[in-house]
Design goal:
536 residues; mainly alpha; two-stranded antiparallel ribbon
Length: 536
């Protein structure tokens, strides 16, 4: 390995790298946290830690029911752990959401739909629009999960070079779009299903049944796309590329021309994209028909006006599965990547294989979240935390900005978006509900912080791959060079994202269809006598 690849960072980034590398795998982080949680629950139960339940009345006294901390070593909780283990795992909300969406998205990735669509989106772009198109395709490409990293980022280097621009600037723009803009998109996707599954579980731990709407951040993430795009465009064209100067081909790895080739789309690929587009329009039309057509199966006409679209929101997970699956099948049949139904089934099976690690992580996270609920510590911390924050009387925009910054800092040490949210949501979501801030808003604030610092954490799993892409064009390009290149993007995205959430909350704009910034705690059964005043 050349000296340029040695991870010998100094200063703050070096400390982050060394600290992060000493952390165990996220799966074992949850197991260790479960052990710590057990100890804390025993101490909390022994010291009679308690809080007034925000949504239940003690019939004997007529006042709010007092909830005491429960020891996880009690006979009841030990029995729960072993008897309910299968249910604890399989009933973990994000699990079903992610598995269903990935059955379709995995086929789209394997059939080549995502990769071809990204190539088509950027390869013939006018020179002056090259940067914004690469960034936009990168953010939308997150619907394709890992495909955006392995297809678009190296392709951006090739396209920039062909346009007479510095190839590493293209890689930087694509990396910033794909990873720094990880949560920004024009459509909800598998990330929304994953995060809102955790949000739903966190609400239900304290307040009982609540159904997540995976389109609950749709308007916000679309706005993030158009806010982040000019930021990354400016940083690329005005800050990063001028520092590189004219590209020196003598610094390139000698294998670059053999490894990377920007091939034009074949007739089959072009035909496949057209058919995929028609299939997507057909699925969208079908869902519109289900919503406004005869019988309106996705409208609950007998419900209150604000709840009538609930079946539609609940159907979106299945909708994205059908959208990805049929679009991929239409593309693959035309492009020759799917020859028969057996190929389709094999690709769906392969998508499930890719989720093997996620299943292990979900097993650990499910038990942590469930046991946190058994202990009552989540509810107690939420109530006491809400009272504590209410004492500061912070405006909601400032409170959400603090959550953004904390999420961004935590992202430097725990890379998995789902792992971090599974740690934070059980306390954060109920606490903010008590302050009158909706679960959708909590999720949106978390996503801003989680997105912005992806590109500067040494724990980012694709960082070594991005480094290799850069070294193909400049063999002496090291990790320090990569970090220095991406820091301006990260800081700018964090500032822009924080400003966006503060303005959004300040103006009380809807985060998605049927998703408001603020919520009425009474809608969750919270008693007025124990609910803090609205943070608004």
């Amino acid at each position: 390995m050349s000296d340029g690849t040695a991870m010998t960072q100094k200063g703050f980034l070096g400390w982050v790298e060394r600290t992060g590398n000493r952390l165990p795998d996220p799966v074992f982080i949850f197991f260790y946290l479960i052990a710590i949680l057990i100890v804390i629950s025993v101490i909390a139960a022994a010291t009679n830690l308690a809080a007034a339940h925000p949504a239940e009345i003690d019939e004997a006294t007529g006042a709010a029911r007092i909830i005491e901390a429960e020891s996880l070593l009690s006979a009841e909780n030990i029995r729960r752990l072993w008897v309910e283990m299968p249910a604890t795992f399989t009933h973990f909300h994000p699990l079903g959401y992610v598995l269903v969406v990935m059955l379709g998205a995995g086929v789209a990735e394997r059939a080549g739909l995502f990769g071809t669509a990204m190539r088509a989106g950027v390869r013939n772009a006018p020179k002056f629009l090259l940067t914004p198109l690469v960034v936009l395709v990168g953010m939308i490409g997150n619907l394709a999960a890992d495909a955006a990293y392995v297809v678009l980022i190296p392709l951006a280097g090739i396209i920039f070079h062909a346009a007479g621009r510095h190839p590493i600037a293209g890689i930087a723009a694509a990396f910033a779009g794909v990873s720094g803009g990880f949560s920004a998109n024009l459509l909800p996707g598998q990330l929304d299903a994953l995060l809102f599954g955790i949000t739903e579980a966190s609400v239900e731990t304290v307040f009982g049944d609540w159904t997540a709407n995976i389109a609950g951040n749709w308007f916000f993430i679309a706005a993030m796309t158009f806010v982040f795009l000019p930021v990354i465009w400016y940083i690329t064209d005005k800050v990063i590329e001028p520092k590189f100067g004219k590209y020196d081909a003598s610094k390139a790895d000698h294998e670059v021309d053999d490894v990377d080739e920007d091939k034009p789309l074949t007739e089959g690929e072009k035909k496949g994209l057209k058919r995929a587009g028609l299939a997507a329009l057909g699925v969208i039309g079908l869902w519109v028909l289900f919503t406004v057509g005869p019988g309106t199966p996705l409208i609950e006409e007998s419900a209150n006006p604000e709840a009538r679209l609930t079946p539609f929101y609940q159907s979106l997970v299945a909708g994205f599965f059908v959208l990805f699956l049929l679009s991929a099948w239409a593309y693959g049949a035309a492009a020759g990547t799917i020859k028969n139904h057996r190929d389709l089934v094999k690709m769906m099976s392969g998508a499930m294989e890719d989720l093997a690690y996620y299943l292990v992580l979900a097993f650990a996270a499910a038990h942590f979240v469930e046991m946190f609920g058994w202990s009552n510590l989540g509810l107690i911390l939420a109530v006491n935390g809400a009272d504590f924050l209410q004492g500061f009387n912070l405006p909601a925009p400032v409170l959400l900005a603090a959550i953004v910054l904390f999420s961004g800092f935590l992202n430097l040490f725990v890379g998995s978006a789902s792992a971090k949210w599974a740690l934070l949501a059980p306390v954060l979501v109920p606490m903010l509900i008590l302050l009158g801030i909706s679960p959708e808003t909590s999720t949106a604030a978390y996503r801003v912080g989680d997105s912005a610092t992806n590109i500067i954490t040494p724990l980012m799993v694709y960082l070594p791959l991005i480094l290799i892409f850069c070294q193909r064009w400049s063999k002496d390009f090291g990790l320090g060079s990569l970090m220095a290149m991406m820091i301006p993007y990260s800081i700018s995205l964090l500032i822009a994202g924080t400003a966006l959430i503060m303005i959004w909350v300040g103006l009380d704009l809807p985060l998605g269809p049927g998703a408001s910034v603020f919520t009425n705690p009474a809608d969750y059964g919270i008693l007025e006598s124990v609910a803090p005043a609205n943070a608004e």
